[in-house]
Amino acid sequence: MAKDLYNKVMQLCIKQLTTANTKRGLYKARYAKSNPKDERSYQLKISKDQARKHIEALLKRDTYNNYNDIFRRLLISGQNRNMMPSVINFMEREQFFREALDDLNYTQIANNYPKDDEEQEKKLLKKLKNKITNIKDESIDNAKSLWRVYAKFIINAACFMQEKYLKYEKIETKNTIDIIKLATDIANDIPGMGFTLACDFLKEIGYDIAKPDLHILAFLKQNYNKRLKDKKKEITGSLPKDTPLEEAAAVKVMDDIAKENNYDIYALDKLIWLHCSGNYYEKSEFDGIIVTPKSLQELFLAKI
After folding, report:
1. Cα-based angle 11, 12, 16 (whole degrees, multiple of 5)
2. pLDDT band at 133; cut points 50, 70, 90
């Protein structure tokens, strides 16, 4: 099955984009120009060639030209958890973040907002609130609110870039176990990052590693469960004690599948994520179109 995995998942993604109002492809249109509140389901007509072209464009890594670009990527990866993307919405609000926070200059942020200080987190959020008006006062005061959690992350990420990133940049390795150890170190160095998001960050800036999120784990358990369990036993003892073993095993299995079949690990990871999340973004010829994500249970009714 692994030999044809890439093409099979690609075909499923194409099916999602070309089939409307089914379990694998329910679409909605936003008529933002005429009425932002008018959101209706409708039949979307996209050819297979259009779908493939759109998907292939999403399988390419962005390029990062300087350290502030890498810091920006760190901020994106740091919000990719639970409900945070819909609340923080960094990508759509990036200009507001730039205007409030020194054009996302990590050195300025680290100098202006010392870490491990709740008052500095509130100060940063108050500056953001001048640009993002739906940040509530209670979100600023509540240390457990998603906005406060993200404010703390921004400060910790800026300090990480200033104090420790250069140490990691000098580590060049294609060995997956070494990259897993690197992700563990970064997760420890940035409070609130976590192993999975550290993998996401490394993946996006050029390391050959998958992000072991819920989608990848569900996919592997559905299709490669024995292999995943065996790999977990195999790597036990070779990693730091605070490395989550199931997620690390998922990273290693994805890497093994990619190498065995000469797949690009970044593209394979992204294809599986696209298929499982149903999120094909709002860009290119699909501008204004939203693919409604489906539950994992619906997505995995049948094995690939």
Report:
1. 115
2. confident
Q: List Cβ neighbours of 139 (8 Å cut-off, separation of 6 or more).
A: 125, 145, 146, 147, 148
Query: At a CB cut-off of 8 Å and minimum separation 6, what does 22 contact?
Result: none
CA-CA distance, 60 to 179, in Å (whole number)? 21
pLDDT digits (tens, 9 = 90+) for 77-91: 999 888 898 899 998
Q: Could you read off the pLDDT of 147-159 as tens digits, one per residue? A: 999 999 999 999 9
Contact 70, 206 (CB under 8 A): no
Q: How many CB atoms within 10 Å of residue 247?
A: 22
Phi then psi for residue 17, to 5 deg, are -80, -20
Q: Determine contact, residues 182/164, Cβ cutoff 8 Å.
A: no
Quote the tokens at residue 100. Answer: 């409030």
Stated pTM of the model = 0.82
Alpha carbon distance 40, 42 (integer Å): 6
Q: Are 291 and 16 in contact (CB under 8 A)?
A: yes
Average pLDDT over residues 32-45: 46
